[in-house]
């Protein structure tokens, strides 16, 4: 671990050679105790990593960033939990944008894209109590030095594929943790309007005509016009706004 200048993110760092899932390991820690906020569980090889809604996450051993951060966003009501997602996704977007020349965006709700290819993603697992968030495990996967992919996702890229350079993964931890902490503290301050504006500015295909497919198989054209406070994607279809939840639609790639 290189020198940290964060207040809490990454100050406790579990560096594992191998684990099934860093999120599962972090959740296990939470079930037994209350680790300090910002505790990180990192693994050089994650052999059962998860994406959203049970999908897999392919990561070659020692090639990528695969870690989870334990946070306690108890200041957020459950109805506002997507703001936490926005803050983390923005942090990753800004971090990746500082490493590669390709334009970096957030593909709703929390995939990180370089151009039209996926370079990373987030899986947040929240524990809720009395209408508020009690704890969150933020699972982060970023493709860094991997050059060949065989399973998930179908359109991957990596820092190395975008730049041609090999990266020191350990050296990336400090700037990543700094970005996560800064974004989280902005959210905690309660000034969420800039956060929402920045999320829309970074949103993949925002304001552009695009083709989509509903989960019933039908296709339609629309324009992403916003994201509701609940996290549902707002798309204008033939002049009328509609809202969609995750897995209810998908982009049709050109």
SSE pattern: EHEEHEEEEHHHEEEEE
Straight-line distance between termini: 41 Å
The CATH homologous superfamily of the largest domain: Bira Bifunctional Protein, Domain 2
Mean pLDDT over the full residue set: 92
Q: Compute the number of structural domains.
A: 2
Whole-angstrom Rg: 18 Å
Largest sheet: 7 strands, mixed
Looking across the biggest beta sheet, what order are the strands in? 1-2-3-7-6-5-4
| Number of DSSP E strands | 12
Structural class: alpha+beta
According to CATH, the fold-level topology of the largest domain is BirA Bifunctional Protein, domain 2
The percentage helix is: 10-25%
**What is the highest CATH level, the class of the largest domain?**
Alpha Beta
| Unreliable parts | 52-56
Strand portion: 25-35%
CATH architecture descriptor text of the largest domain? 2-Layer Sandwich
Gross morphology: globular
Count of DSSP-assigned helices: 5
Task: Summarize, please.
The chain has helices spanning 22-32, 81-97, 159-163, 169-188, 193-201; strands spanning 13-19, 40-46, 65-71, 104-107, 111-114, 117-129, 132-142, 209-214, 219-227, 233-237, 240-244, 249-251.
Task: Please supply descriptive tags for the structure shown above.
BirA Bifunctional Protein, domain 2; about 250 residues; 7-stranded mixed beta sheet; 5 helices; 12 strands; 2 domains; alpha+beta; 5-stranded antiparallel beta sheet; SH3 type barrels
